[in-house]
Every structure is written in structure tokens, then in C-alpha cells.
Write a structure and sequence with these properties.
Elements (H helix, E strand, L loop, with lengths): L2 H7 L3 H11 L5 H13 L2 H9 L3 H7 L3 E2 L20 H14 L7 H10 L5 H18 L1 H6 L15 H9 L16 E5 L8 E5 L2 E2 H6 L6 H4 L21 E6 L9 H10 L11 E3 L4 E2 L3 E4 L3 E2 L3 H4 L15 H13 L2
Parallel strand pairs: 2-8
Antiparallel strand pairs: 1-9, 2-3, 4-7, 5-6, 5-8
Helix pairs in contact: 3-8, 6-8, 7-8
The structure holds FE2/S2 (inorganic) cluster (FES).
């Protein structure tokens, strides 16, 4: 292990989130939600739990984990939804140099992130997020795998090809409701963008509809062939009742246009292990619960699971039954765990 890896290894997930919080005012709005979402999509404590588990496969089964949760498989791609993704190659090279030369073991974590961000030739407000992501990626995958990744980036496209200011502006804008729009109530229609890197990755939503319900109506593609968790639409779902954790999403823009989190969603997010901020309208939601009344831009994680009670201390302990691959059995496993509380 290099000095930098040893240094990064000292910090808990809470330390990383605190360092990120300190840097947020200096991060451009275009990536402020995105970087916080990324750190929730790749939780350090879950990674450490699985790394040290006596029987890793059994733990993965027990957490009913589906999809690709391993950062080591996505070193160059996990951050595609960040504006800062375009600086990945340079950021990665910077971190590799830092890994070989790092000496300041007493440094503040946010300062180390700033040092990496400053070495990339672009405005620091746009490189801080990808520098934080890069250092956490190194922390989870190790220098050998980090170096082995090619550092390839996806050419900016879709909304993400625009300038940071334009992206922020477009995220905030709602669809026009026409000349008599002010008379409309329930029949207002909006748009949900589910991948800002693609120009056509969007589906319509009726006023106050849940995101997952609206997504299920879009049958323009064979979603299941792209992700086996997608039974209905582009957002993976199972229970539609906040019981399984399949439908979690990050909200890049428009979180203020979602209904407030209700008690059930709040409680279940903790059970699942998804680190939802305490805000009334946070950037991490369950799509089967979140109703929208305006345009929203989201990002869909590549995996889901139920691990909160094992991985985080502040969640009440409940023994989950062994997982199965069948959707019906999956629902039964989660319901049974909830009812035994
Ligand atoms: S579909 Fe199960 S929690 Fe939303």
C-alpha cells in the first residue's frame, strides 16, 4: 500500500461525507448533487463490510443485492453522470502521481481533495467533484486496479454537453403548459430525464404522479434486456410500496419539485442502507414513493440491496432471511424482516 492509500484508509464514510460537505460551497452547482449522490451510490461502509465478511457471497445473498455494485468494475464509468467526468483522464493521472509522492499523513481530507482538483487544468469548481470521486475510487479499488483502468471518458453528449450554467438552467425549467396552462391542475404534464448524457432518455409524467409509475408507462424500449431488474420501465421496481429498496434514485435537478419524504420512505431508506439526507426533499429518493409536480432530472444506480441494519450502527438489528433470485421470494424476505421489528 502507498502512503496515500494508507492515509485514505483511515477515514470512515462519515469522515468522507463531512469533507465533502466542507467543499460543497466551492463545487459548481452543476455537480453539487451529483457528487453527493455518487458517494451514496458507492457506500464505503458497505464495501468494507463485504471486504471483511467471513463469507462474502453469503453476505451478498443476505443483503438481496442485485445489479453491479462493485466499483472495481466501473472505475472509468461510475461517474458518467457528473459534469466533471470529462476531466477523469487527467484527474486519474494526477491521483496516480499523488499516490507515489504523498507524505502529509496529518493533512485534512478536504485539503487533499483540493490538492488533486487544483492539479487538473480547469476551473477548480468543476474538478473538485471528480477529484473526490477519484480518491474514493482509489480507496476502494487499490492502486493496481486504479492504474489498470484505461481512464477512458465518454464524449459529452445530451444535456451534459452544454455549459454548466445552461445545464443548471435547463434542470430548473418546467415544460410549458400552453397558453391556458394556468387553468390546468391534475392534467399538467412534465418530463423526467433519466440520463443526462443521452438526448432521448426521458419519459412524460402527469402532475403528482410517482416517478416509477410514470416510468412504467414508457414501453418504447425492451428495458429488461438492458437491466434484468427493469420489469416495467427504465426504473427498476419490485414492490411499489417502499418495502424492497429496488427503486432508489438520485435527483440531479428538481428535488424541490418532488413531494416531501413521508415517514415510511424515511424509515425504509435507513433499513435499506441508503444514506438519505434528513432534508424534507432530499436528493436520494424511492421512485415508487416520490411524486413530482415539475420537470425532474434523475440518475438510476446500477444496483440495489438491503444492508442498513448490518452495515450501519444506528439502524435497529434485524436478521434477514436468505435471499432468493425470485421476485416473489425477494418481497417475502423483505416483508418478513420488516414485520419482525
Ligand atoms: S419498488 Fe420496492 S421500494 Fe420502491
Amino acid at each position: 500500500m502507498t502512503n496515500l492509500e494508507k492515509y485514505l484508509n483511515k477515514f470512515s464514510e462519515a469522515d468522507w461525507l463531512a469533507a465533502l460537505e466542507r467543499l460543497l460551497p466551492a463545487i459548481h452547482e452543476v455537480d453539487r448533487n451529483a457528487v453527493q449522490i455518487w458517494f451514496r451510490f458507492y457506500p464505503l461502509e458497505l464495501f468494507r463490510y463485504l471486504e471483511t465478511a467471513e463469507d462474502r457471497e453469503k453476505a451478498i445473498q443476505k443483503f438481496v443485492m442485485q445489479g453491479d455494485f462493485e466499483l472495481k468494475n466501473q472505475i472509468d464509468s461510475s461517474h458518467r453522470f457528473l459534469y466533471g467526468h470529462r476531466y477523469w483522464k487527467e484527474t486519474k493521472a494526477t491521483i496516480e502521481i499523488l499516490a507515489e509522492s504523498f507524505k502529509d499523513e496529518a493533512a485534512d481530507l478536504s485539503k487533499v481533495i483540493e490538492t488533486a482538483a487544483s492539479a487538473v487544468k480547469a476551473d477548480k469548481s468543476l474538478t473538485l467533484s471528480i477529484a473526490a470521486v477519484g480518491l474514493m475510487t482509489l480507496n476502494q479499488v487499490g492502486l493496481e486496479a486504479f492504474k489498470a483502468a484505461k481512464g477512458e471518458t465518454q464524449k459529452p453528449s445530451g444535456l451534459l454537453a452544454k455549459s454548466p450554467a445552461t445545464i443548471v438552467e435547463k434542470r430548473a425549467k418546467d415544460d410549458s403548459q400552453g397558453i391556458f396552462g394556468f387553468l390546468k391542475t391534475v392534467d399538467k404534464k412534465f418530463t423526467v430525464t433519466w440520463d443526462e448524457t443521452k438526448s432521448k432518455a426521458r419519459f412524460p409524467l402527469i402532475n403528482d404522479e410517482e416517478l416509477a409509475t410514470a416510468a412504467a408507462k414508457d414501453q418504447s424500449q425492451d428495458w429488461k434486456s438492458q437491466d434484468e431488474r427493469c420489469w416495467e420501465g427504465v426504473i427498476p421496481v419490485e414492490c411499489r410500496s417502499a418495502s424492497c429498496g429496488t427503486c432508489w434514485i438520485g435527483v440531479l435537478g428538481g428535488q424541490e419539485k418532488l413531494a416531501e419524504v413521508q415517514r415510511l420512505e424515511r424509515k425504509q431508506m435507513k433499513v435499506f442502507g441508503y444514506n438519505q439526507p434528513e432534508d424534507e426533499k432530499p436528493f436520494l429518493r424511492l421512485a415508487c414513493q416520490a411524486k413530482a409536480h415539475g420537470n425532474v432530472s434523475i440518475v438510476i444506480p446500477s444496483w440495489n440491496g438491503v444492508f442498513g441494519k448490518k452495515v450501519y450502527d444506528n439502524v435497529e438489528e434485524v436478521e434477514l432471511k436468505p435471499a432468493t433470485t425470485s421476485a416473489k421470494r425477494l418481497r417475502e424476505t423483505i416483508k418478513s424482516a420488516s414485520s419482525s421489528e
